[in-house]
Amino acid sequence: MGYAVMLLIVFLCHEVSSISILPHKHQTISLLKFKNTLTIDPSADTYYCPKPYPKTSSWNMSRDCCSWDGVVCDDITGHVIELDLSCSNLTGTIDSNSSLFQLSHLQKLDLSSNNFSNSHISPEFGKFSSLKHLHLSYSYFSGQIPSEISHLSKLHSLRLSTIYDGKKLRLTTHDFKWLLQNLTQLRELDLSGINISSTIPLNFSSHLTTLKLKFTGLYGIIPESIFHLPNLETLDLSSNYELGGYFPKTKWNSSASLIELDLSLVNFSCNLLESLGYHLTSLRSLDLAYCNLRGPIPESLSNLTRIEYLYLYR
Ligand SMILES: *[C@@H]1O[C@H](CO)[C@@H](O)[C@H](O)[C@H]1NC(C)=O
Ligand SMILES: *[C@@H]1O[C@H](CO)[C@@H](O)[C@H](O)[C@H]1NC(C)=O
Ligand SMILES: *[C@@H]1O[C@H](CO)[C@@H](O)[C@H](O)[C@H]1NC(C)=O
Ligand SMILES: *[C@@H]1O[C@H](CO)[C@@H](O)[C@H](O)[C@H]1NC(C)=O
Ligand SMILES: *[C@@H]1O[C@H](CO)[C@@H](O)[C@H](O)[C@H]1NC(C)=O
Ligand SMILES: *[C@@H]1O[C@H](CO)[C@@H](O)[C@H](O)[C@H]1NC(C)=O
Ligand SMILES: *[C@@H]1O[C@H](CO)[C@@H](O)[C@H](O)[C@H]1NC(C)=O
Ligand SMILES: *[C@@H]1O[C@H](CO)[C@@H](O)[C@H](O)[C@H]1NC(C)=O
Ligand SMILES: *[C@@H]1O[C@H](CO)[C@@H](O)[C@H](O)[C@H]1NC(C)=O
Ligand SMILES: *[C@@H]1O[C@H](CO)[C@@H](O)[C@H](O)[C@H]1NC(C)=O
Q1: What is the domain range of residue 253?
Q2: Which UniProt keywords apply (predicted)?
Q3: Which of 192, 213, 234 is the last residue of a domain?
Q4: Ligand 3 centroid vs 97 CA: distance in angstroms?
């Protein structure tokens, strides 16, 4: 009897300890496997990095993975919830079978400013169902952005911007539309440099504070609804040579929040409206160069008292 109880206690202790240790062990192994599929490039292109250094170099079994550089775990569950390997001199590819995709509890993943050797963005990225922040900018991905990205309906920020190197990353018109329609929590969207070659759809998250679609091959007319996004602080639609637009005639709804407006090289072919100066009172940067604007510069621009950068040439 006593023997049986003791066995039971031993069994229970064993179960409990293996339950609490297992997630850590799995995560540690997944992270080390991921590390080992990539190499450190001593001459990495780190133009966008203030202080590049290889975060994975110090990863080893002597410490719990939750204390590794770039890794953050949930205090209660112990799951890895953040992985920041931006500017880490990483080079190699992230295949669909990568152990990275076993970290299913990730809420933030930043792999920006590395060199993934022009490989594709795996559709597996769309399975991180808890993800709020996905940052893959300037990392030499190429090919079509998988439509599975629009499954990440909890995303607050999505940064996929790329170096303007011949538009190797593409997003289909269809996927662009779904992305905007499905990601209703987005605060920040940066797709600059990606070949979208589409008109701008009408559905935008009303939470958006930053929208950057510079040099994406967008065409057609800018929907006026963009100027009325109530929380918008930064809008960059510049360098889309086949895009045209009109300034809203009535009050802009985003006018009080807008801090940075870059519409350079967008074809407005109209007069610069007097209303601009009355409404956009928070503006610190206004770029309307090469906009094909006509007529006199309105006196109201003198009301933009916070302005630090004002480009109206051509
Ligand atoms: C990472 O890349 C930078 C820039 O090319 C370089 O200065 C640095 O030495 C590299 N670090 C390592 C550990 O290779
Ligand atoms: C393991 O990591 C620790 C802390 O990052 C470091 O001090 C130690 O040198 C590493 N050990 C090996 C064998 O790399
Ligand atoms: C993962 O896939 C790549 C290419 O598809 C292959 O070369 C590699 O051996 C695979 N790795 C594992 C661990 O299965
Ligand atoms: C990226 O890595 C590939 C090899 O994987 C190399 O050919 C290429 O020059 C690297 N690009 C940069 C910008 O370092
Ligand atoms: C939109 O998101 C949901 C999950 O939140 C997903 O089931 C659905 O397939 C997504 N739609 C598209 C077109 O990606
Ligand atoms: C963008 O992609 C389309 C095909 O999807 C292609 O026809 C076009 O040439 C690309 N634009 C640029 C600038 O590469
Ligand atoms: C915008 O999205 C809503 C659902 O979120 C949909 O009912 C509506 O038709 C969409 N509008 C456009 C123009 O796509
Ligand atoms: C501006 O905002 C007000 C109040 O939030 C709203 O009723 C109105 O429809 C908005 N105007 C436009 C053009 O979006
Ligand atoms: C700009 O738009 C005007 C009017 O829509 C058009 O006549 C003109 O050709 C456009 N310019 C360019 C460079 O596309
Ligand atoms: C804006 O500027 C105009 C002319 O420069 C001036 O008459 C007007 O009072 C100003 N409006 C505001 C709201 O500051």
Answers
A1: 218-314
A2: Glycoprotein, Leucine-rich repeat, Membrane, Repeat, Signal, Transmembrane, Transmembrane helix
A3: 213
A4: 6
